[in-house]
Amino acid sequence: MIFKSRVFSLALLLAIAAFTPGVLKAQDAQPMNEVSLSGTGAKTTAGTADGVAPLDGGAVSDAGTAPAGTASAGPEAAAFDGTYVWVATQFNDTVTRIRAADGTVSGSFLVGKRPVALLYAGGYIWVANLVSDNVMKLNPSTGAVAGTYQTGDGPGGLAFDGSNIWIANRESNNVTKLAAATGANLGTFAVGTRPMGLAFAGGSIWVASNFGGTVVRLSTAGAVVGKYATGRGSFGVAAQGENVWITNYFDKTVTKLRAADGVNLGTFKVGDGAAGVTFDGTNLWVVCNGDSTLLKIAPATGAVVTTYATGKGPFGVVFDGAKVWVPNFASNSVSSTAAN
Predict the structure, then answer these.
(1) Rounded Cα–Cα distance for residues 317 and 297 (Å)
(2) CATH code for the domain of 261
(3) For the ranges 32-41, 143-152, 205-214, which has the lowest average pLDDT?
(4) Which of 164, 172, 173, 196 sits at a 20 to 30 Å CA gap from 32?
């Protein structure tokens, strides 16, 4: 069997080996509800963090097998379609559908190899398959594949600008633009080193460069408008009104930029391994992979309002209009809590 490696970074692997809990510890945090993806039903997270399993981008076979010692199916990303929360479980090449109203698991569907990013746009669930080098769109009612489209090397981030789907290709250092209605390829555009998260804000596409410590701003035509310093290990991106927020995995911080011109409005301390980020219309939510926590942040000040204990090793986060959901990479589960 040929093995295809998607390595997050040597620095991250060393950080895991020497893992020490961060300042914001899960045992001091508020509990969340937890839905198991292993058929064991719902439970409550007790709020005890005891380390992190092998993280995103570890070595994996073309068959989608988890690295040795990984018991979890690797739930990493989530999206909400108005009724269901969808979770990408990358080590069994599936997406799982959960009814948001009551947390009932209502189906799992095969996709490509190593699904690591999800997006609901244009009436479909879009899935980025890291090893297959493609994206799929699924009918949310049936889970059926409605289209498969080639991307660059290692697609791992998704965004929607109102008309088009943008895909961050981690290994080829570029983004692909697809027409949401047809899947037609509208271009591939160079960005920073190892693009991860991306978002549409202020009329532009903002792309986090994980190895560059920057965020690149593109016009919707794909032209580079600006490049702005963030922090080490830039990871997730979220739009918040007139601002853009970027998580910095290794710096344990988030950076706030003004969407109109990229002016830095502040860098704020969060927890270890700041990864996924989303905005619920009032508050910002950041998951901290190393601490196994979810932070509720006041956008005006960058202050942490509340800390919640998730399962182990979360990367992603999504808001469903009432609750915030977090896939737990190393626990094979999904945590949720009321947003307000």
Answers:
(1) 14
(2) 2.130.10.10
(3) 32-41
(4) 196
CA-CA-CA-CA dihedral for 126, 152, 314, 207, to nearest 10: -90
Tens-digit pLDDT profile for residues 287-298: 999 999 999 999
Residue 104 lies in a domain: yes
- 78: nearest Cα among 324, 338, 339, 337: 324
Banded pLDDT at 22 (limits 50, 70, 90) = very low
* Mean of pLDDT over the chain: 87
- Dihedral angle at the C-alpha atoms of 279, 282, 287, 293, nearest 10 degrees? -160
Residue 68 covered by a domain: no
The total domain count for the chain is 1
Containing structural domain, residue 214? 3-61+74-338
Give the residues across from 128 on adjacent strands: 117, 135
Distance CA 334, CA 340 (A): 19
Compute the radius of gyration of the chain from its Cα atoms. Answer: 18
> In this predicted model, what pLDDT tens digit does every residue of 61-73 receive, in sequence order?
333 344 444 467 9
Helix (H) or strand (E) holding 11: helix 10-17
Antiparallel, parallel or unpaired: β 243-248 and 304-309? unpaired
Looking from the CA of 190 toward its CB, the CA atoms found within 13 Å total: 0
Q: Is residue 147 part of a domain?
A: yes
Band (pLDDT 50/70/90 cuts) for residue 26 is: low
* Angle in degrees, CA 320, 285, 325, rounded to 5: 40
